[in-house]
Amino acid sequence: MLNVPSQSFPAPSSQQRVVAGGRSKVPLKQGRSLMDWIRLTKSGKDLTGLKGRLIEVTEEELKKHDKKDDCWICIRGFVYNVSPYMEYHPGGEDELMRAAGSDGTDLFDQVHRWVNYESMLKECLVGRMAVKPAAPKGMLPKSQATDTLAREGPSSPSYDWFQTDSLVTIVVYTKQKDITLDSVIVDHQDDSFRAETIIKDYSYLINIELSHAVQGDFSVRIVENVGKIEIVLKKKENTSWKCLGHPLENHNSLVPKKDAGLFYRQCQLISKEDVTHDTRLFCFMLPPSTHLQVPIGQHVYLKLTITDTEIVKPYTPVSDSLLSEFKEPALPNNKYIYFLIKIYPAGLFTPELDHLQIGDFVFVSNPEGNFKTSQFQELEDLFLLAAGTGFTPMVKLLNYALTNIPSLRKVKLMFFNKTEDDIIWRSHLEELTFKDKRFDVEFVLSAPISEWNGKQGHVSPALLSEFLKRSSDKSKVLICICGPTPFTEQGIKFLHELNFSKDEIHSFTA
Ligand code: FAD
Ligand code: NAP
């Protein structure tokens, strides 16, 4: 559905577009980039044809606007005239037309629920649906939500609170044993208190305007064997609270995680360090009133306002160093978040990010992604296939596997880059091969200098079959793959041809 510039990447002429398969990425005409779209929306042109009026749209009316040059789409109860946007949509006109004259919320959520369409399409807003379609997802009161989820979801969580003279403790009873510190994300901003707990593939939200002021910092404790989470807030004044506060939107609701909205908090740029000629290590500080630990293999979204439009792109947090599990981190891990980000001079988002000064802010979302550390259980051979910044999810994976999986015999990374200068953290990787005998790395270059005597070319069955040797016939294997979409798609195809099963492959995608 609607899209952001990551979908217009790679460039139409680039080899990354050559391989077919998956969602089509349609080459955009000259002058039809996201930046061009933003310029058009700022030009004052009437993009809805309604001269700035907002109207109530009936279902009958919506259905009438189902043609390319007259195309209305409803997303979460709001109707947009997307005809002017057609040529700018990196997913192509056909993708948009699938929702023409109808409610496109589900289609939109399937592809890019994180895209900030409200901001991108604000000049295309026609109005609201007169009769709301179905109740928007994620808005069910808990009683209703739990009825629906009772059959397939986790058993209903609940919460309680108690106080002493100086503390207020909020307790979440998840009724799940596998709850860890990264299962809960807490934000306390002004008087509003928000705690989202991820329980299997569901999200349980506590969202309250507190009745009294509390201090900025708080602590989070997990009582693992009973699945209890305790969030301890410090009162500003030692008075007795009569109630915890007033419920805010979606308070005490349990919804499938995919239907929960993304929550953002402002994080401050602390440092920026060159890693290669075009890739930098960014360190951001979380607010003191946030508890957020991004689970291994998951990504977050960064949001910046560029020319008055909110732009959102996904990035995968890394550790501050590939060797960080083997030494004391310079800064406490749970207060800082690190990213390895490649700057594309002609890109929309990364040059803006690169222009941030130390002390500037960026919005960081809650995590997303479907990698689970349970995939490591009893694992013997871990193979990582990364291309370019597709290396980023491998960083935490590597650290975790080498330090926490006793069954592990071998970890091998095949790292595809254009030239030697493009290899991220090459010296760390080489050092790691000395530090841990189970680890090995192979660099493959697509455009090496003539003196390069390592592997050359692109991902291929020949390269993979030589690389992916099990440590024994029946050893449990996991192959993780990440890079430009066509690289990943091709790699998966070759892995299937080499008889690796679906369960043995994990691909990182948006
Ligand atoms: P874009 O504007 O998307 O442009 C990128 C390139 O394409 C530029 O060279 C630009 O000139 C070219 N281009 C764009 N539009 C056109 C057009 N219409 N015609 C011709 N050429 C065009 N990246 C990282 O560096 N680190 C990470 O940790 C990371 N994690 C990710 C996690 C996930 C789940 C996903 C899906 C992606 C991740 N990415 C990561 C990629 C990241 O999200 C962005 O896609 C990337 O940073 C480029 O953003 P940009 O806006 O700067 O560039
Ligand atoms: P890059 O430098 O352009 O490419 C890295 C290597 O991959 C090069 O050797 C390149 O060969 C090769 N390659 C590119 N396209 C290929 C294809 N179609 N088939 C085979 N090999 C191909 O990579 P980058 O600019 O760092 O981009 C990294 C990509 O990873 C981005 O698309 C980003 O969105 C994605 N990413 C995804 C996630 C995630 O989903 N979780 C996380 C991080 C990054 P050539 O020299 O021939 O181009």
Describe the protein's architecture and organization.
GO terms for molecular function: cytochrome-b5 reductase activity, acting on NADH; heme binding; metal ion binding. The longest helix has 13 residues. The strands form five sheets. The chain has a seven-stranded antiparallel beta sheet. The N terminus is likely disordered. The radius of gyration is 24 Å and the shape is globular. The protein has about 500 residues and is of the alpha+beta class. It contains eleven helices and 29 strands. The protein starts with about 35 loop residues before the first helix and ends with a strand.
SSE inventory with pairings:
Layout: H1 34-41, E1 55-57, H2 59-64, E2 66-67, E3 70-75, E4 78-81, H3 93-97, E5 102-103, H4 105-112, H5 117-120, E6 125-129, H6 142-149, E7 158-163, E8 167-173, E9 184-189, E10 192-199, E11 202-210, E12 214-223, E13 228-235, E14 245-247, E15 253-256, E16 264-274, E17 279-285, E18 290-291, E19 300-306, E20 309-315, E21 317-318, E22 336-342, H7 350-355, E23 361-365, E24 381-387, H8 392-404, E25 410-417, H9 426-435, E26 439-445, E27 455-456, H10 461-467, E28 477-482, H11 485-497, E29 505-507
The structure holds flavin-adenine dinucleotide (FAD) and NADP nicotinamide-adenine-dinucleotide phosphate (NAP).
Pfam families: CS (PF04969), Cyt-b5 (PF00173), FAD_binding_6 (PF00970), NAD_binding_1 (PF00175)
Biased composition (Low complexity): 1-16
Region (Disordered): 1-24
